[in-house]
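Design request, tokens follow.
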């Protein structure tokens, strides 16, 4: 399935830096988006189809089973999409691109998030990374994996220690294990806007 590469959802501390010391954006998302309107248009509907604004799955009945993994899960696959988080007490939102690289042969997943854009404050420059281990045999409300993503995001001359806590499940659609979605808890630390629980969705 072809999906635009790019939306939400991060512990914590704030470090004031001069503009020349702002964090860089080393990971090459393709494509990237220049405005909040563009990234919102690219990912809001795709994300909302799989996960609610609080990170709960729209249809938990689509969670992939161990049998689903066994049919197709070999090699490495990149899942691409977004994290979306709502700012507490406002109608503002933060959307960032997310790529999860899944190595099915070792049941591991690595993640990269970046190109975050706030609906009012604009670009939050920086990259977050993390790793997780996949459990194919989930039952009940368990997750296929948990992942702590860490890094720094810079906006308006300030750099914030950024964290995203992902709780994800593989989902079946037209194909088995074609998507991953779940909760994305974004935190930027003291002095930065606070966010409600958000969600993420990525497609292969």
């Amino acid at each position: 399935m072809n999906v635009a590469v790019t939306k939400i959802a991060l512990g914590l501390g704030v470090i004031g830096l001069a503009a020349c010391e702002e964090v860089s954006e080393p990971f090459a998302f393709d494509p990237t988006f220049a405005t909040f309107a563009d990234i919102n248009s690219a990912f809001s509907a795709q994300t909302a189809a799989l996960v609610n604004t609080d990170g709960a799955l729209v249809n938990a009945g689509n969670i992939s089973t161990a049998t689903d993994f066994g049919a197709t899960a070999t090699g490495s696959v990149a899942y691409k999409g977004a994290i979306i988080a709502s700012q507490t007490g406002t109608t503002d939102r933060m959307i960032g691109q997310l790529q999860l690289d899944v190595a099915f042969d070792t049941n591991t997943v690595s993640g990269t998030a970046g190109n975050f854009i706030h609906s009012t404050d604009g670009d939050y420059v920086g990259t977050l990374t993390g790793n997780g281990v996949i459990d194919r045999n989930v039952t009940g409300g368990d997750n296929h994996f948990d992942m702590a993503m860490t890094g720094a995001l810079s906006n308006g001359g300030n750099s914030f220690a950024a964290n995203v806590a992902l709780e994800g499940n593989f989902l079946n659609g037209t194909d088995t294990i074609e998507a991953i979605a779940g909760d994305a808890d974004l935190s930027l630390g003291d002095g930065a806007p606070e966010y409600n629980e958000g969600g993420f969705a990525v497609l292969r």
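Comment from the thread starter after seeing the answer: thanks! The radius of gyration is 16 Å.
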